[in-house]
């Protein structure tokens, strides 16, 4: 297998630091640069926690990074504000984005899809790289065909920036694709405290819980006469996402299309 040259944006983050381990421990992957808003001009090995990493230059500016470094793939694990800019810039430089960053808008996704088509390059946007989470979304989509009253509860650590989570949005989208839009609950329902019923998506409600101690969890509740069904997934560490990142990097090199969701590339 040919070596895949990879840039990681957000290497010091909770996810980014796991991705650095994945890339540097995978034989056919090579970490060629890092994009970090701090430490411009240093080597990754100069940064605490990365002393054992070989010669990997850090750039604060992705444009400059892509002008100087020959790369195949950009793995982006940053923030909703910069993730889109990074993905767009990578494609403009003929580098294939694998994006775990969440909080992208529908317009962002449409723009990236257009750019992929124009450039004939692959791009994978995966709101959740954990295989169990992908199964949870697929099982929820199956269940929604038969039980169309749904509430989504996502639970995350309290440092998360976006709400609802990318996974919750993707789950709601997947359910909406098979379910007639339906207003749930009593038609005269009133919130006496604003937000009590959570966010609304095609009549479904999404509730976001943020607590220290949590990592990434979601349950999808279905109800019908006299019964409920709960489908739940829990990530207990960020290693749980890494096999999905690996598959995404390998797949993005083979495909020249835009992919939104890991379920679309898993066999
Ligand atoms: N798709 C998936 O399976 C998963 C996605 N995520 C998403 O990944 C993203 C990162 O999550 P965490 O690692 O928990 O966050 P984090 O806050 O630990 O890491 C974000 C990193 O981005 C860096 N950063 C900020 N601005 C930057 C810039 N302009 N250039 C380069 N780096 C910059 C920060 O320094 C930080 O190290 C979030 O959007 C989160 O929702 C998180 C877990 C799993
Ligand atoms: O920020 C996180 O931690 C996570 N973000 C992703 C999301 O928004 O769905 C994936 C996972 O839930 C962890």
UniProtKB/TrEMBL annotation:
<feature type="binding site">
    <location>
        <position position="157"/>
    </location>
    <ligand>
        <name>(S)-2,3,4,5-tetrahydrodipicolinate</name>
    </ligand>
</feature>
<feature type="domain" description="Dihydrodipicolinate reductase C-terminal">
    <location>
        <begin position="132"/>
        <end position="266"/>
    </location>
</feature>
<keyword id="KW-0220">Diaminopimelate biosynthesis</keyword>
<dbReference type="InterPro" id="IPR022663">
    <property type="entry name" value="DapB_C"/>
</dbReference>
<feature type="binding site">
    <location>
        <begin position="166"/>
        <end position="167"/>
    </location>
    <ligand>
        <name>(S)-2,3,4,5-tetrahydrodipicolinate</name>
    </ligand>
</feature>
<feature type="binding site">
    <location>
        <begin position="126"/>
        <end position="129"/>
    </location>
    <ligand>
        <name>NAD(+)</name>
    </ligand>
</feature>
<feature type="binding site">
    <location>
        <begin position="10"/>
        <end position="15"/>
    </location>
    <ligand>
        <name>NAD(+)</name>
    </ligand>
</feature>
<feature type="active site" description="Proton donor/acceptor">
    <location>
        <position position="156"/>
    </location>
</feature>
<comment type="pathway">
    <text>Amino-acid biosynthesis; L-lysine biosynthesis via DAP pathway; (S)-tetrahydrodipicolinate from L-aspartate: step 4/4.</text>
</comment>
<comment type="similarity">
    <text>Belongs to the DapB family.</text>
</comment>
<dbReference type="GO" id="GO:0051287">
    <property type="term" value="F:NAD binding"/>
</dbReference>
<dbReference type="GO" id="GO:0008839">
    <property type="term" value="F:4-hydroxy-tetrahydrodipicolinate reductase"/>
</dbReference>
<dbReference type="GO" id="GO:0019877">
    <property type="term" value="P:diaminopimelate biosynthetic process"/>
</dbReference>
<feature type="binding site">
    <location>
        <begin position="100"/>
        <end position="102"/>
    </location>
    <ligand>
        <name>NAD(+)</name>
    </ligand>
</feature>
<keyword id="KW-0560">Oxidoreductase</keyword>
<protein>
    <recommendedName>
        <fullName>4-hydroxy-tetrahydrodipicolinate reductase</fullName>
        <ecNumber>1.17.1.8</ecNumber>
    </recommendedName>
</protein>
<keyword id="KW-0963">Cytoplasm</keyword>
<dbReference type="GO" id="GO:0005829">
    <property type="term" value="C:cytosol"/>
</dbReference>
<dbReference type="GO" id="GO:0016726">
    <property type="term" value="F:oxidoreductase activity, acting on CH or CH2 groups, NAD or NADP as acceptor"/>
</dbReference>
<comment type="subunit">
    <text>Homotetramer.</text>
</comment>
<keyword id="KW-0520">NAD</keyword>
<dbReference type="Pfam" id="PF05173">
    <property type="entry name" value="DapB_C"/>
</dbReference>
<dbReference type="Pfam" id="PF01113">
    <property type="entry name" value="DapB_N"/>
</dbReference>
<dbReference type="GO" id="GO:0050661">
    <property type="term" value="F:NADP binding"/>
</dbReference>
<feature type="domain" description="Dihydrodipicolinate reductase N-terminal">
    <location>
        <begin position="4"/>
        <end position="129"/>
    </location>
</feature>
<dbReference type="InterPro" id="IPR023940">
    <property type="entry name" value="DHDPR_bac"/>
</dbReference>
<dbReference type="InterPro" id="IPR036291">
    <property type="entry name" value="NAD(P)-bd_dom_sf"/>
</dbReference>
<feature type="binding site">
    <location>
        <position position="38"/>
    </location>
    <ligand>
        <name>NADP(+)</name>
    </ligand>
</feature>
<keyword id="KW-0457">Lysine biosynthesis</keyword>
<dbReference type="InterPro" id="IPR000846">
    <property type="entry name" value="DapB_N"/>
</dbReference>
<feature type="active site" description="Proton donor">
    <location>
        <position position="160"/>
    </location>
</feature>
<dbReference type="GO" id="GO:0009089">
    <property type="term" value="P:lysine biosynthetic process via diaminopimelate"/>
</dbReference>
<comment type="function">
    <text>Catalyzes the conversion of 4-hydroxy-tetrahydrodipicolinate (HTPA) to tetrahydrodipicolinate.</text>
</comment>
<keyword id="KW-0028">Amino-acid biosynthesis</keyword>
<keyword id="KW-0521">NADP</keyword>
<dbReference type="InterPro" id="IPR022664">
    <property type="entry name" value="DapB_N_CS"/>
</dbReference>
């Amino acid at each position: 297998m040919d070596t895949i040259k990879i840039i990681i944006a957000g290497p010091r983050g909770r996810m980014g630091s796991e991705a650095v381990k994945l890339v540097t421990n995978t034989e056919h992957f090579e970490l060629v640069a890092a994009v970090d808003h701090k430490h411009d001009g240093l080597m990754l090995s100069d940064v605490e926690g990365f002393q054992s990493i070989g010669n990997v230059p850090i750039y604060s500016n992705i444009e400059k990074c892509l002008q100087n470094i020959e790369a195949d793939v950009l793995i982006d694990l940053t923030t909703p504000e910069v993730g889109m800019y990074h993905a767009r810039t990578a494609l403009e430089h003929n580098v294939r984005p694998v994006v775990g960053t969440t909080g992208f808008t529908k317009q962002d996704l449409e723009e990236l899809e257009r750019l992929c088509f124009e450039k004939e390059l692959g791009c994978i946007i995966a709101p959740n790289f954990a295989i169990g989470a992908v199964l949870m979304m697929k099982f929820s989509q199956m269940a929604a065909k038969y039980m169309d009253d749904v509430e989504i509860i996502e639970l995350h650590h309290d440092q998360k920036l976006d709400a609802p989570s990318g996974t919750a949005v993707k789950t709601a989208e997947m359910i909406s694709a098979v379910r007639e839009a339906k207003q749930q609950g009593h038609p005269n329902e009133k919130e006496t405290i604003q937000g009590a019923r959570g966010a609304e998506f095609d009549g479904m409600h999404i509730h976001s819980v943020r607590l220290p101690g949590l990592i990434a969890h979601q349950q999808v509740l279905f109800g019908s006469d006299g019964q409920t069904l709960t489908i739940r997934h829990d990530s207990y560490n960020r290693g749980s996402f890494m096999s999905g990142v690996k598959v995404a990097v390998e797949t993005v090199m083979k495909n020249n299309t835009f992919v939104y969701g890991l379920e679309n590339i898993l066999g």
